[in-house]
Amino acid sequence: MCLANEVLAVDRVSVSFPGHRVLHEVSFRLEAGEFCGLIGSNGSGKTTLLRTILGFQAASAGSIRINGARSLTSVGYVPQKIALDPYLPMRARDLVSLGLDGHRLGLPLPSRKRREAVDEMLEAVDAELFADQRIGELSGGQQQRVLIAHALVRRPRLLLLDEPLANLDMRSVAEIVALLHRLSVEHGLAVLLSAHDMNPLLPVMDRIVYLANGQAASGSADEVVRTEVLSRLYGYHIDVVRVHGRVLVIAAGNEAEILSAIRQDPVHIAQVP
């Protein structure tokens, strides 16, 4: 049964490759206006889960519903690691425009309605000032804004982002997180954002899906990021340490090493599963 505000339902989804189980019975729900962090270390299955939701990867078991059906018409997607040639003769607004009908063959015909849709989305992500610059010449944070606008220009209800904060400086990370949270609230947009570090998302996350050892725990950050929950996921003892307003997830026995790192550099705190 689909609830009125339910945008995404993942039910007992498993994904296996020959000789390797990637995901095992992953379940969670996401409602309109919810901001959800998909958290896990490299290789934990975050990208595989996003690809399965998008239909790029077949599930070996379980089901996925988007707006009560298996439909991708209302999903926006920002993929991981897009290499943009600085000499590519494409402006930021041109890339956003492709989000309207880039899936179709042939060149789109210009129109006032099309131009207004692009301008409105560039304004929504605060990209008006560099809308006419070449996309490859923009900073990492500016490129992410344009890619988000490209994903949202068709007004989806669900936005999936695969590691959009990777390789950004701290200021850009904070700005992108604040932008996505604002869009989620203002437009009732369900956001599922994958990251290996949950700390930048803690102020805005309504829900967290934590992946480890092919399994997932879902709920609020306080419900999930607990020693007993994460130890069960990893299959060995995990300590959750809160310091300087940040959360560390560390394997038992590494406390001295991590706390030493904190004393040397209290701003950059890594998660060590």
UniProtKB/TrEMBL annotation:
Transmembrane segments: none annotated. InterPro entries: AAA+_ATPase, ABC_transporter-like_ATP-bd, Metal_Ion_Import_ABC, P-loop_NTPase. One of its GO terms (molecular function) is ATP hydrolysis activity. The keyword Transport applies. Residues 8-238 form the ABC transporter domain. It comes from the Bacteria. Keywords: ATP-binding, Cell inner membrane, Cell membrane, Membrane, Nucleotide-binding, Transport. SUPFAM superfamilies: P-loop containing nucleoside triphosphate hydrolases. This is ABC transporter ATP-binding protein. It comes from Pandoraea eparura.
